[in-house]
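Consider today's protein:

***
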Amino acid sequence: MNAARAKAVKANELGQIPVLMYHRIVEKPGTQDDRTPLQFRTELERLAKENYVPITAAEYVTGKIDIPAGKHPVVLTFDDSSPSQVTLANDGTPMPNTAVAIMREVAAKHPGFRPVGTFYVTRDMFGKPDKIEQAQIITWLKTNGFDIGNHTKDHLSLSGKPQNQVAAEVAAGHQLITALDGPAPVTIALPYGNQPRTKAWALKGKDGAVAYDYGGVFLAGYTPAYSPYSKEFDPVGIPRIRSMDKKGDCMKFCSTAWLDWLQANPTERYTSDGDVRSVAVPKFQQPMVSAKFAKRALPY
C-alpha cells in the first residue's frame, strides 16, 4: 500500500465502473441491441485508448480488481450466447469477426488491454445443439480467461413469478453451465432486466439438488455501476449500459454517451492505485468504503 502513489495517479477506487452490455455482433443489425463488428471494434479501441482494462463480472462483484495504477476497469458482458459472440473453427481458434476474435485482436494491438468478458448463456448455447460442441466452447472460454454467467435456461422474465418458479428458472440456468463442466457461475444477468418480486430470490436460492449463491445480479441497462467497495454497491441490482451511439433514446443513457461523460468527469470514474490489496480513496471519501473492505482502505 502506497498513499503517495495513489495520490500521484489520482486513484479513486470508489469511482463508477461502466458495465457494458452486448448481444449479437453482426454485419446487418436486426435489433437495437445488435452491433456490427466495426462498431464493436471501434468501441474496444476507444476503451483501450482511454486507459480502460477489462475485468470479468466475477472479478468485479468479488472486489478482485487487479489492474495497473492509473487505469480504469470496464466489464464487457454478452447476453444470450449468440454464435456471433463465440464460434470456433476446426482448429479451435475463434472465427473472424466474432466478439472473442475482435477482443483478442484489439488486445494484441494494445498491450495491457485484457481480452476478457462475461458471457451470460441460455439454452441456445452459441447455436450448438450438440452437448459435446457446447462443452468445447465452454472449455475454450474457461481456458482463455473468460467468465461464464447465468442468464437462465429459457430466458423467461422473472417478474411476478412466485419464489419456487424463480428458483427453478435460475437453478436450471446454473445447471446448464455446470453440466458442461463449466465453472459454477458467480453472477446472473436477469432476462430483460426484470427483477423478481423479492430481488434477493435471484441472488440466492435452491431448486431440488441445485443451489445457487451469487455475488451479483445484473440488470439490462441505464447507468455506470458503483464500485464493489462502496457502501452504495447493491448486489441485487447492478446496472449495465447498452452499447450504442448517441442517438434517439441513447443520447444520454448508452455507451458512447456514458463514456463521454466519464471522460469529462474523471473524478467520478474508478481509477486504480495498482494494488489489489488496497482500496485507495481521497480522504473525504473514506466514510463511503463498505464495512466489508474497510480494513483495506487507503485514504490519501
In short: The radius of gyration is 19 Å. The chain has a mean pLDDT of 97. Residues 163-178 form the longest helix (16 residues).
